[in-house]
UniProtKB/TrEMBL annotation:
Record protein name field: Peptidoglycan glycosyltransferase
Native organism taxonomy: Bacteria, Pseudomonadati, Thermodesulfobacteriota, Desulfovibrionia, Desulfovibrionales
Keywords, in A-Z order: Carboxypeptidase, Glycosyltransferase, Hydrolase, Membrane, Protease, Transferase, Transmembrane, Transmembrane helix
Spans annotated as Disordered: 476-505, 571-595
EC annotation from Swiss-Prot or TrEMBL: 2.4.1.129
A UniProt-annotated Pfam family: PASTA
Organism: Solidesulfovibrio fructosivorans JJ]
Chief location category: membrane
Composition bias type Low complexity, residue spans: 571-594
């Protein structure tokens, strides 16, 4: 018999081992499956909320967008200040992989010190700005370098298209688009754009994109605009003539104001020296100040018309009252009051005309401390005018109880009292407005939401007009201190001022402030002009250093506005009364050669440009570039109805040519070709 137990046992052993292996594999997969389910359950149930939050932080981020700063315009909508978008470069120090190499490259591109950049790259902050304004070329080079941890952001910077025009009025902004001076500071909360947060998503490379544009489309985050009462063209005239007055007289600085009487709006507020707000970094605070509103001066003799108005209002004097001016020297209260010339007995109008300090002191003493101090308060001295700018000066008027008789005498001719140029303009606005208080205005929009001081009467209308007439004599009559401001054919009023400045150690030094206030026209004024020249040399009299500047601004302003009276023209010589012969009688009279004053008027009016071309002598003016309405008004005033060709509101050319004689047959003899403004 054959036996086979051994083979069977081996086969059986193999089968049993296979079963074990299968069992082990099954158990392993079972455990793995249970582990995965356990892990999944843990991630979903226990750690789920925390992981979801981390996922949101990784894939979603908030983007902060800042709106542009509002713009500033003049009264006619001409742009004075706007915001321009710039690239700002910043770094996230934790993402920078090669600080030394990165700092070396950025220092060359941004023109910064390498050590300064390296210090920022090693900062512990999450984000550090390197430069707020990066040019397009530099930004392109940095982007091409693809530096780790270096990013760009949109920022806004301020741009002033007219350079230094009205720079002290507007002020400027600093880092972060924060207003630092002038209107920029006073209306910073209105002008500043708001911030808005948007949810953005990152792709696999970390690049960001908006979920949608809904937030940006619906949210208006830009700042609001501000419109001033300033007229850019008149501001330019004021600045140009002020600069000439200051430099020609070797002065320290100066201010010029132009006020529209019917509305109280300030058309020009100029200060010299100028500065360019586009490059305001490091500018001296003294230059950036709006001296016309923030600085105070003793007004000097410009106080006298206001004093006379107060005395007339209180019936202390009459226009015919006379005062002994003591031949130029008057001893009072252990002090000596002097006049520049020796005068005897003078009526009130002559005291104003020749600017007698002694006469003014005696009028003030008759008025008395109580009433004089009261009128100073009514005129606005000692308190801000209410212009909507930061830090406006209050002026200096000492309490009534501190006044002595000598204080009354000196305050009567503008010493011992300090006012800002805008306070002086406010006081003269009352006088020009027939004695009724009207507030000055510098900002047209937004409207002022503060309680407005109600108008009140300071002087009777006949009193105000009497003083206006006295100011007319200052310019128009002989021996008037303001005759250098005279414009032949236009009656203006004015008052000169020459104030001795206080010394640094008390008392008065040898420095002066020359000033001039003008009414245009003299009676029922429509405009007030003030020029102050600080520390002029060698002459310091207001009639010498300030009055010519007022005259020139007046001519250019009226020419620009189309308000130049036809009486302001070159005089013609009359025809001979008894010609020597028949031939001479038939010959046309020769035109008189313009005198120097007439030549100056024509030169100044012609320099006004634009609408100033309408200044007429005895010939057809140049209408090119002039608004149609203005040209028609001039022609209708001459009895001529022009024929219009083309479409538009601006004259492009004309017939007859400028300078030709006025046509004798005025029917359809003047043709104006029109075009649309560019």
């Amino acid at each position: 018999m054959r036996s086979k137990p051994k083979v069977d046992r081996q086969q059986k052993t193999v089968r049993d081992w296979s079963r074990v292996k299968l069992t082990c594999v099954g158990v392993f997969f079972l455990l793995a499956w249970l582990g995965l389910w356990t892990r999944a359950g843990y991630l979903q149930i226990v750690a789920g909320p925390e992981l979801a939050e981390k996922a949101v932080r990784q894939h979603l981020a908030s983007e902060v967008d800042k709106g542009a700063r509002g713009e500033i315009y003049d009264r006619g909508g001409r742009l004075l200040a706007k915001s321009v978008e710039f690239e700002a470069v910043f770094v996230r120090p934790r993402e920078v992989t090669e600080p030394e190499k990165t700092a070396d490259f950025l220092a060359k591109v941004l023109h910064m010190k390498e050590q300064r950049i390296l210090k920022k790259l090693r900062s512990s902050s999450n984000m550090v700005y390197l430069s707020w304004r990066v040019g397009d070329r530099a930004a392109a080079r940095i982007r091409e370098a693809k530096l780790a941890g270096v990013y760009f952001n949109k920022e806004y910077g301020r741009f002033y298209p007219n350079g230094h025009l009205a720079s002290q009025v507007m002020g400027f902004v600093g880092v972060g688009d924060v207003g630092l001076e002038g209107v920029e500071k006073a209306f910073d909360s209105r002008l500043t754009g708001r911030q808005a947060k948007y949810v953005v998503q990152r792709d696999a490379s970390g690049r960001r994109f908006f979920f949608d544009a809904q937030g940006q489309e619906l949210a208006n985050i830009n700042g609001h605009d501000v419109r001033l009462t300033i007229d850019s063209q008149i501001q330019f005239f004021a600045e140009e003539e002020l600069e000439k007055a200051v430099t020609d007289n070797h002065a320290k600085g100066g201010s010029c104001l132009v006020v529209h009487v019917p509305t109280g709006e300030i058309l020009a507020m100029a200060n010299y020296p100028f500065f360019n707000p586009n490059v305001a970094r490091g500018i001296s605070p003294r230059i950036a100040r709006d001296h016309a509103a923030l600085d105070v001066y003793e007004p000097g003799s410009t106080m006298k018309p206001l004093l006379v108005a107060a005395a007339l209002q209180e019936h202390v004097i009459k226009p015919t009252s006379t005062f002994n001016c003591e031949n130029g020297r008057y001893s009072f209260a252990s002090r000596t009051i002097r006049d520049t010339h020796s005068y005897g007995v003078l009526p009130v109008n002559m005291i104003v005309r020749v600017s007698s300090n002694i006469g003014a002191a005696k009028i003030g003493l008759q008025l008395g401390a109580t009433r004089l101090h009261h009128y100073f308060e009514l005129l606005g001295f000692g308190r801000p005018t209410g212009l909507r700018i930061t830090g406006e000066a209050r002026g200096l008027v000492r309490p009534l109880k501190a006044w002595t008789p000598i204080d009354v005498a000196t305050a009567s001719f503008g010493q011992g009292v300090a006012v800002s140029p805008v306070q002086l303009a406010q006081a003269y606005l009352i006088l020009a407005n027939d004695g009724v208080y009207k507030p000055l205005k510098l900002v047209a929009d937004p409207p002022d939401d503060r309680p407005e001081r109600a108008p009140y009467r300071v002087f009777d209308a006949d009193v105000a007009r009497t003083v206006q007439s006295m100011m007319r004599e200052v310019v128009q009559e002989e021996h008037g201190t303001g005759k250098t401001a005279r414009i032949p054919g236009l009656e203006t009023g004015g008052k000169t001022g020459t104030a001795q400045k206080a010394g640094p150690h008390g008392g008065y030094g040898n420095k002066y402030l020359g000033s001039y206030v003008s009414f245009v026209p003299a009676i029922h004024p429509e405009y007030i002009l003030i020029v102050m020249v600080d520390e002029p040399e060698p002459s310091h009299y207001g009639g010498v250093v300030a009055a010519p500047a007022v005259r020139n601004v007046t001519l250019r302003m009226l020419s620009y506005l189309g308000r130049m009276p036809e009486t302001v023209q070159l005089a013609q010589a009359p025809a001979p009364a008894q010609p020597a012969s028949r031939k001479e009688a038939q010959a046309p009279p020769a035109a008189k050669e313009p005198n120097q004053a007439d030549k100056e008027i024509l030169a100044i009016a012609g320099a006004a440009g634009g609408n100033g071309k309408q200044v007429s002598i005895q010939s057809v003016p140049d209408f090119a570039g002039m608004p149609l309405r203005q040209a028609v008004e001039i022609l209708v005033g001459k009895g001529i109805v022009p024929r219009l060709e083309g479409q538009g509101l601006v004259v492009s050319k004309q017939s007859p040519a400028p300078g030709a004689p006025w046509p004798t047959d005025k029917k359809n003899q003047v043709v104006l070709w029109l075009s649309r403004p560019s």
